[in-house]
Amino acid sequence: MKQFWCTSAAVTALSVMGAGASPAWAQAAQTAAAPQADNAIADITVTATRREESLNRVPLAIQALSGDSLQKLNITTFEKLIEFLPNVRSASRGPGTSSIYIRGLSTDTPGLQITGTAGSFPSVALYLNDAPVSLPGRNLDIYAADFQRIEVLAGPQGTLFGASAEAGAVRYITNKPDFSGVHAGFTGTYALTKGGSDSQSGSAFFNFPIVENKLAVRLVVYSDQQGGYIDNVPGTYQLPFDGHVGQAGQLPTGNPLLVRQALASCAGVNNCTGSNYIAPTRQSVNNDRFVGDNFNDANYIGGRIAVTYKISDDWSIDLMHLQQRLRTEGTFDYDPAVGDLKVQQYGQNRLRDDFNLENWTINGRIGKLDVIYTGSYLNRRTVQVNDYTRYSNFGLYVPYYECDAGVYYNNAARGKVCYTPTKSYQVRDTNRHWTHEVRVTTPAAARLRGTAGFFYDVNKIYDNTDWSYLNQGAGFIYVRAPNPSVNAIDPTPRPVNVGFFNDVTRRDRQLAVYGEASFDIIPQKLTITGGARYYNEQASQTGSSNTSFDGVSRGIYTPPPVGSPPGTPGSYRPSATPPLYYGISANLADNLRGLSPTTYSGVLFKGNLTYKLDSGSLFYFTYSDGFRPGGFNRRPCRLGSAICPTQEIFRQRTAYRPDNVTNYEVGAKLALLDRTLQVNLAAYWINWTNIQQTVFDQNISNQTFTTNLSDARIRGVEGDVTWRATHQLTFNGAFSYNDSELTKYRQATTVLRPIGSELALSPKFQGNLRARYETEMSNGWRPYIQGGVHYVGSSISSIIDNVSIRYNGPNVVYNGVAVNTGDVSTPLVAGIRQRAYTTFNAAVGVSKDDWSLELYGENLSDARPQLFISGNDGINRVTTSRPLSVGLRGSFKM
User: Fold this and answer.
1) Alpha carbon of 804 to those of 445, 490, 600: distances in Å?
2) CA nearest 875: which of 423, 337, 514?
3) Cβ contact 341:294 at 8 Å
């Protein structure tokens, strides 16, 4: 095997010197007015402006990868796609759990367990054809099989694409049925990963006309089994606490409640030796049941059917049904403190993500007007179970859940044992999204032309998230149901170990009217464009958060026999009248009374001036707006915190408003050297105001909290270049330089990094460089070699700087150290510096007629790029690329 790796890596590495697929993001339009060389760059058509146009005649910063390029670059998932998009980043903890960011409009990403209830909507709009599929924290992980192209629109796209398009939009465009004949194709891949499990995938499409020039059908199926590469290694764990008994000059460390109890017990006692505080006996847990190598598998399986019916020369109907199932096991981020690509997990980690999407479109013509009605229905069901044992590191109320009551209340008479600290959470989210849009466009060749439309959608998220914190050894022996007064989505009793759960419904309704018009001031030369969108957003939230803090959760405690060794557990028996229901920690009918539903409305604007040259080049200036919807918190912030110093602000912070983006941009699209060289450049200045910030800071609230906390400014330059040097050799590259900065606190805060700090996941520089050499031999064989390099500069994982838990008791001297109210008792790292990285990919292959065969290598240097570092589990875990992989891919089309 070692010899295989050395040989394979050597063969694929050779192609880095002169290889790289042409991603088709800089294809130039070809017109009769401009001469071109025989090896001119081919054209690609996009619909970013809601009408078909040549990519490089659109005065917009847009990158597009054609279906051919997607296949050549082996792009099937979003994690692979962003390697070729230098101004796009992702905060991902594995398949199905990504958030997308463009041009550095990013602050942080909340924990996966609360995105359904408390996550903000994304700043990037995601579309499949004309169906918007943007969701908080869990953007649809669409597998790219048989796609016509993927378009990435940078900068606010509010007038044409509405909510969440404040940083840009990503559009997946599928291949439609065609009437030209029967077509079919298959692609299969088998890959080996260094130190990991094998992977294999296959996809196929079938296109066939049923009625000549009237009815055609296209079927697509795919399956991708991605082997794991992260090991779950043996370990033991217990509720952390070190009292440093008798060690003068040191403070206790560990779980924040235990630290606070130790400090409070020593109030007024100089050089407290621990006699005033009796630390609990803490049991430990091991992960022997869950140890395994390469335990993070992922499997995509799905398919779609598309039907086109041509009613007449002017009218047609397109129907599509897409169904996909995603299954994962294990974790896709590792713990560097444990080892390279290693973690210690003490419970199950799995994801089941299923969705169905229906999309229907009626295309027609009334006189000179093109009319489109399109609608969609998305039904998505996600169930995720994650180990959450390490929540004991920082969970303020953990000792209540897993210890005898005497630990939480610091009372030895009620027991002082903490039991095996196993915890997990289970997310059960259902998303149902209906959309309707009517759009009218005037003839593209007219001097005055325009697009107008009406849009309506309703998005509902049903979130049931259970936190399994309770330990039966600590007396939690009752099975209970939600209180009937909260009208729960799931009224059934929860398992006995569930100590806290959300049962919440979010409803967001958007109504919009928009229009965009262009006028040729000088025909074929100077064009002015103006657009506006009126939006009316309504947000509502109902349901509850439920708790075991109700006074009757535990059984009746019986202490151990007198004379038992220290740490001997007591026992619990049920009461004569056991509790039937959970307590209510947040009843949204009460907390949001008079606030939900709430409506936000406004007008977004766009202006553009474009000057075109005869050579096919152009220059443009654009002003554009964008926004994303507001929402609600389950509970207000803690009264007296920096964010909520007064009762009035305490109430106001229950809701958060939309945030907004304004963008000033100048750009050029230059077709040079007889259209063998295409250069696209854009420079922008973005103001981001009322930024929605989501944070879990127990000094603010014991539940994740979102508020409009800051403003920011982003300046940048981005560009891409394609050069077809000869018929055989093509180079392309892309880069971005981003200078982001926090400019203002909207509220008093100790949570965020200082004014002037960079935004999260916003490296100063990113870039990629690729090349592809392909020739055709006299016998019809077409050998090729391709490869490239991808560089990403350093960035921070979050703009949150300080969520350390603070001591809120009286001033105290503990072992000779003065501790004052407000001092940090449990330090927590938030924003983490992610180091710069470089990766290399390459491939060699041959094709002939309708088939091709390729040997490819990915991450050839076996790098460990820090794609995203998350501290949501109380430890810093790193999402990284798959290690060095070598694969064989074959395809056939007819």
Assistant:
1) 61, 35, 34
2) 337
3) no
Dump the DSSP string for 767-785.
Answer: EEEEEEEE---TTS-EEEE
What does the alpha-carbon distance between residue 619 and residue 613 come to, in Å, rounded to a whole number? 8
Identity at 222, one-letter amino acid code: Y
CA atoms of 775 and 782, how far apart (whole Å) = 5
Residues in the chain: 894
Q: pTM for this one?
A: 0.91
- Residue labelled with tokens 């700043």: 123
Query: Which SS3 state, helix, strand or coil, does residue 708 take?
Result: strand
Strand-pair partners of 188: 202, 890
Alpha helices in 678-744 (DSSP H): none
DSSP letter at 602 equals: E
Is residue 170 within 8 Å of 124, Cβ to Cβ? Answer: yes
Sign of torsion over alpha carbons 747, 750, 751, 755: positive
Enumerate the β-bridge partners of residue 449. Answer: 518
Calpha distance 262→245 (Å, rounded) = 10
In angstroms and rounded to an integer, the radius of gyration of the C-alpha atoms of the chain is: 29
Q: How many CB atoms lie within 10 A of CB 221?
A: 17
Q: Is the backbone peptide bond immediately before 597 cis, with ω within 30 degrees of 0?
A: yes
pLDDT of residue 649: 63
Report the 10 Å Cβ neighbour count for 686: 25
Mean per-residue pLDDT pooled into runs of 10, the chain (894 residues): 42 36 36 55 83 86 89 87 87 87 84 78 92 83 93 92 92 94 95 97 96 96 97 96 73 88 80 73 95 97 97 96 97 96 96 96 95 97 95 91 90 88 94 96 94 96 95 94 92 95 94 96 95 96 92 89 85 92 92 91 96 92 95 78 66 83 96 93 97 83 83 96 94 95 89 92 95 93 95 94 83 82 83 94 94 96 94 86 96 91
Round to whole Å and give the CA distance between 158 and 128.
17
CA–CA separation, 119 and 112 (whole Å): 9
* Helix (H) or strand (E) segment spanning residue 621: strand 618-628
Cβ atoms of 617 and 671 closer than 8 Å = yes
Integer Cα distance of 363 and 357 in angstroms: 20
Task: Give me the DSSP letters along 186-236.
Answer: EEEEEEEETTS--EEEEEEEEEEEEETTTEEEEEEEEEEEE----EE---E
Burial class (CB in 10 A: 0-12, 13-18, 19+), 619: middle
**202 neighbors 188 (Cβ within 8 angstroms):** yes
| CA–CA distance, 609 with 520 (Å, rounded to integer) | 10
Q: What is the DSSP string of 728-740?
A: SEEEEEEEEEEEE
Q: Encoding tokens for residue 703? A: 């539940």
Amino acid identity of residue 321, one-letter, is H
